[in-house]
UniProtKB/TrEMBL annotation:
Superkingdom in the source lineage: Eukaryota
GO cellular component: plasma membrane
Chain ranges of the PDEase domain: 736-966
Protein name listed in UniProt: Phosphodiesterase
Keyword terms of this UniProt record: Lyase, Membrane, Nucleotide-binding, Phosphoprotein, Transmembrane, Transmembrane helix
Annotated compartments: Membrane
Annotated signal peptide: none
Location of the Guanylate cyclase domain: 510-644
PROSITE patterns with a match to the protein in the record: GUANYLATE_CYCLASE_2 (PS50125), PDEASE_I_2 (PS51845), RESPONSE_REGULATORY (PS50110)
CDD domains, per database record: CHD
Amino acid sequence: MNISGKMKPNMEQAWEEELGRETMRSMEMSKSASFKEEKQDIERTATSSAEQSKSVLALRIIVYITLVLSIAGIIAGMLSLVGKGKQEAFEEEIERISDDAMLILGSFIHSISSQLSDLSTTLTAQYVSNTNDAGGDAIAPGFPGITLPFFDQRVQVHPEADVVFYTPILSSDVTSKREWEDYASQKQGWIDEDLQNRGWTPINTEIPYFIHQYTGEDLDFNSFQNVAAPIWQFSPPPKDRSIINMDALTYPYTIQIIEESLAKKGTNEPLLSESFDSEMLLQDTEFMNSTTPRTLLSMAVLKTFSTNDSTETPEVVGQMFALMSWEKALGEAFEGVNIDLQLDVQESCGLGFSFILHGGNIAPLPTSASAFALSDTQVVRTLDHLESCQYTFTIRPTGGSEVHSAPAALPTAAAIIACCIALFLMVVFHLHNRLSKAREAKLFASAQSSAAMVSSLFPSAVQSRLMAEVEGKKQDNRRLILERSGSMNFQAAKELVDSKPIADFFPEATIMFADICGFTAWSSMREPSQVFTLLESLYHSFDQIARRRKVFKVETIGDCYVAVVGLPEPCKGHAVVMSRFANDCLIKMKKVVKALEVSLGPDTADLGLRVGLHSGPVTAGVLRGDKARFQLFGDTVNTCSRIETTGKQDKIHISKETANILLTAGKDHWIEQREDKVTAKGKGELTTFWLTITKDKKDASASAAMSASLHTLLSMSSRSAGDEVSEKHNRLVDWITNELAVLLRVVEMTRMTSRSVTKTNELAVASLERASLDTTMKSTPLNEIKEIIDIPPFDPSFRELPGLGDFNLSLDVLIELRDFVNHIAMMYRENPFHNFEHASHVSMSVVKLLTRIVTHSNTEQDIEELHHQTYGIASDPLTQFTMVLSALVHDVDHPGVSNAQLVKEKTSLAQLYNNKSIAEQNSVDKTWILLMEGDYQNLRNAIYKTEAEFIRFRSVLVNTVMATDIMDKELAAARKARWEKAFNPELDEDPVTASNRKATIVLEHLIQASDVAHTMQHWHIYRRWNERLYNEMYKAFENKRGDSNPTDGWYKGEIGFYDFYIIPLAKKLKDCGVFGVSSDEYLIYAQQNRREWELNGKAVVESMKPNLSRTSSNNSLIEIVEKKVPSAVLSQSNCEFKTNSDRESEPLPSSFSILIIDDDKISRKLLSKALKKIAPDWRINEVESGEEALPLASSSDKKFDLIFVDEYLGNKPGALLGSDVVTKLREQGFGRLICGMSGSDAHASFKDAGADSFVFKPLPFRPDALTKELGRIIALSSTA
């Protein structure tokens, strides 16, 4: 039975359905297979679409033509039915528009006249007042010597005129002219004031001293040859002051007005000039390139006010002018007019001009232009209520404007209905067209996406082979799909799909494995988004280097980056290329992690890269199947992995094979043999090498020694100033400042949008601040612990909070916040455990838990529901801010010994705090006293503005810091009782009190968990901090400040600590239901670390014993380095740093001038503020760029004794580097002290440029440390 004929239509339909299914399915298949099938789908779709498009296009054209002809017929019929009333209605409309326009134009001119009248009256009143005060006729003050204060601001109140200026009229004697020239020279300061108010920079700084003439046409002004009218006050203020003192009686368009004004003898009516090109009056204004016609409107300035009783005519002593733009005036007059018009303006005193109104926009019409056909309808109007020049307006619609008139009702309704039907049909067909094109575009985008995916996954040679394979199988795969819908069996399809794999053997290649050291432990403390931010930043940087170096990135496996050189295109220097690439990645890694530490938190900059290189033969190709990729195989790959895992952080470990290739290439100075052999699985012992890329063989050894010595010297330079904070320390300060600033921004935004915020009472808040300081002196924080802290109720306006990008804290608040954090950091002692780094770690844990509080629930959950679920913590940014602040300060000034030891020693602190929670109470008091200083007024105003906010801030701070004392049994028992009471289901109290009770105890447990967060994080994190705590306690024992050797009970003590404190605490975090998955994470890590400690804890304790040397102070470390660095090497390095380190600081001079060049506003303001503290009489100037600094430093009236210049001065194209600024300053002859600054090592750049010294940013802001540092920098001048 022949079924092929019957099956054919069904097969075609099945093929189309299968095509759609195959297209959707191919997007989810493996990369290489996806590419093949999507390519086939594109070809099939193109074939079918081409056939369908022909008929669709023909039908579409017919429909469009029919609809267009129908609409044209409807419009023609509508026009034929419209009666004569159309033209009459149109003419009446033009009449109405013209009348309205003349009223608006008259009002516009009247507004300018009123402004001139007000200014003239003000000048007359000022003269009269000055004369009365002087007791008679005054020559100065008085006319002409009068300057109107805030002239530009007065003019800007009514900005209708483009320019407004005032000219006094001087008498005929030469003496009055000379007096005026002296007066104008002395009183020209009004220009600078007006320019400053506008934020403009002057082109020149002095006005012309003598009254000068307009240098245009040579006109005969004999009647005024002995009278002068110098232009004086001018708005907008002139950047180029040459127009000041120009005699208006020599300017063609002002003389006619002044002549007429003087002829009228005291009448104060507005005068209008002819229209003219006002380029001279518009220079240095926003209208300077405008050629539109303008005219001058003027009002006389009288010497006295005229009265009805007076028979004397007031003398004209000046003239006030306003330059009016006809384009602006007519634009307002005809605003909203939709009819196209031509406006012809005739003037009695000039040639006239024309404007065209088209599409609601008005523009001048050149005299030669005649592009618009004009209607027979016209309206003539005259502006006749002004003196001097008369203006007549002829208003004519352009051709075709009549269509705007309303036709008869019946044909209009019929036409509208017909048009709507036709338009509806057109829209339907248009939508059909759009959908068809969208489908085609989707298919094309899918093809492009597939091609881009293939390009990113496979080398170019492999891509071309994949394309060729797809082309060769196009017809077979089409037949396969067709037959799948018929009788094709699976075996036949398999035979068609099967093909030869794409794989090759490459005899010479070099592979790199690069792993991020410490990544696993680091990521255990971070949010997933932070982990991916790090990886994306690093891998993106590596990818950019790979493209530049022609290196092929194979893949990334977690935190491991794999790359290869030598395939698929052979490369003779593959080992050299890969060595340079690895070195670039190592350098880039250090820069990226340092930059990211400010946003990703502590320990980010400690991450390093461990790199392994190996050379040899490689098999490479496309391993097909699900999620296929280009892969490498062979012993070379396995060996490279072993080389990487046996390497060290921040070093490039290479195999003997790679080293031999580098030796052959003449790069023996890059290679240093590793002292110990490494054991690799399946390879036994291997001889390996370290790779260090240097410029040439001669510099290889010297470079290594110089690098180490310079690093030491630079470290000594920064510490010698008394600023113990390291570069890492500064990054931690910046990170904490950033986290607190973000929360503080939310606090401010919440206040702005809240509907229930109490009005600020500054006096009441100030009273509470004073009372809190009195309490600090008379009582103890322990007495302030509250069982219930009032958390604000839910505010519906919290749903309307704008994004953080819409709001910024003031610069003063940011400066004070960073200064406060820096001071807190400096108050920490150099303990192995209770130090600023640990406080940063605790702060990071608090931030992580708070983030989970706010975001752990479903994103669609209502904010009010989240508020109640988290007991109000999620919607109170002030409490969140205080929690992070508490984590930062909770161990301030910790002595490094236990509270029990302080009690035993009977220290003054123990007596002060009644032998209870000594370290914790001391931290609270010292933090509070610092915050209440006058230097932090703006910061306090940002934290709290009401009494309720102050009380909540203080209460949360005290409760949470005191909660970190977990050794006091009474406090622990009270806390346990409060937890049981808060979460007792049988407790009967009102919901608000119950919620606040739970919030209070949850906050205390949050900071407790953060304080010991290292025990509930990755094993390596726990080991590091556990060892530091051990070292601190052992140090106390060695110093006779401990009862027993901590080694004896450390192993069992940790097990008990986990069993009775850590694991129960983690379970409480889980039970309260506030912290989301973080509570599960903390509990899991706590249980894992407990098991690990039980297995390996004894060995760990033994390994910690000899490591006590790690706790040595920074000073001893410097001494060790100084002993190890040969003096010969030191002499080769920057001598100024050695001088700066060794020289005793000199006393600071009483008078000194400093210029700070830094684009970072906060750093600049902090340094300036610190300098003012130690030397109030010094002159401090600040600029943000080298371009600003160079002219300032070279000016005669700005002599600087010392210039601080940052290396990186912004990201603007062409911006000068700090070292470039130093070079230019020296070229200009600047011979005083220059000190370079940078957050990174830029000493060499500054030295080469001619700087005298270099310091790391930020400089020490403590007065004693900064004084010492400045003394040492100034001391260099004696040896310069």
